[in-house]
Amino acid sequence: MWKLIFAIPILMHGLAHLSGFLASWTPFDAGYSASPWLLSQGIQLQSVTGRVFGLLWLVAALGLVASALGIALQLQWWSSLLLASSLISLIVILPWWNTVPPGARVGAAFDILVIVILVSPLKLRLLELVQ
Q1: What is the span of the domain harbouring residue 116?
Q2: What are the tens digits of pLDDT across the range 68-87?
Q3: Which of 12, 55, 109, 118 is most buried (CB neighbours < 10 A)?
């Protein structure tokens, strides 16, 4: 039961990351604004830099979805992949803070929560709950 309670939001967060990939590589805007990223006014989501970040959005999406499946199937590696994917997710969202839809900001908060849990003693309790 607990594994599904934890796996489903991770799966949804991973699927939501597909919007960042699509917004940077296709005309599908998915609620993203035309605002530039935080580090330079000249860089837009559909620029070369934006497309590199789009690939990172895809990497985060695949990692988060795989982590959710790892939890559901009780595979040993899910927590390491989840930590790496949450870090990538946070890294890809923050520079585009002015561009991403509000849901991505909630996703960044979710990433921070996941990272804190996985690097703290709470990880042991979480591992017990999902087994």
Answers
A1: 2-130
A2: 999 999 898 999 999 999 99
A3: 118
Q: What is the dihedral of CA 42, 48, 49, 50, to 10 degrees?
A: 90
Question: Hey, is 38 helix, strand or coil?
Answer: coil
Q: How many other CB atoms sit within 10 Å of the CB of residue 120?
A: 11
Asked whether 90 and 75 are in contact (CB, 8 A), the reply is no
Give the number of domains in the chain: 1
Token readout for 43 is: 């860089």
> If you compute the radius of gyration of the chain from its CA atoms, what whole number of angstroms results?
15
Q: How many CA atoms lie within 13 A of 96 on its CB side?
A: 35
pLDDT at residue 1 in the model: 79
Q: Which helix (H) or strand (E) holds 59?
A: helix 48-72
